[in-house]
Amino acid sequence: MRKNFLSTKIKSIVIITPEKSLSKKIKDSFLLVKNTDTKEYNNIFNNLNIIFVTNKNGYANEFFMPEKIWFINKSLVKNNNLNWLASLIIHESFHATQFKNGKYILSLDKLEKPATKIQQKFLYKLKDYSAVKDVKTTLKKEYWKEMNEDKKSFIYFRNLLNLLENKKIELKEIK
After folding, report:
1. Contact, 34 vs 41, CB < 8 A?
2. Rounded Cα distance, 54 and 79, in Å
3. Cβ contact 65:51 at 8 Å
4. Phi, psi of 127 (to 5 degrees)
5. pTM for this structure?
6. Per-position pLDDT tens, the chain of length 175
7. Contact at 8 Å (CB) between 51 and 16?
8. Which of 63, 56, 91 is nearest to 77 (CA)?
């Protein structure tokens, strides 16, 4: 497991990535949110502390409460456009709101559907109807069931969380 990562900040949120290009893409996604929906942009900073892009391929990601850390495999960042990534940041940020409202103990189905609706609402604002259709398709397929089959990623996320909490990950600050 690679223990050296890059880190940067967007206001109060620490962005941790294995590659500088991934940090830039995350920053560009934040800028897109800011320019599209300032309310959602501000909500993100209340709901997330860290976005940790792993050095692993795969399509799994996981939001940890109460730490407010979102782990996402690098292929999700690399292989998706800014609209999708920005909407996914909003989606994951919404999970913190669910936790604050006592809903985080619900089934994945009941957690994911409202978060996906928030994601779609943002994509409508961008007029990215193709992405809206993709989100609807993933919702119908209940993609989280497939994602849950990726046990290796979830174990990896928990190991990274443990390493991060025990200060065993070296972070090189970038701008």
Report:
1. yes
2. 14
3. no
4. 60, 30
5. 0.90
6. 457 899 999 999 999 999 999 999 999 999 999 999 999 999 999 999 999 999 988 878 888 888 999 999 999 999 999 999 999 999 999 998 888 766 666 677 778 889 989 999 999 999 998 888 888 777 666 666 666 666 788 889 999 999 999 999 999 999 8
7. yes
8. 56
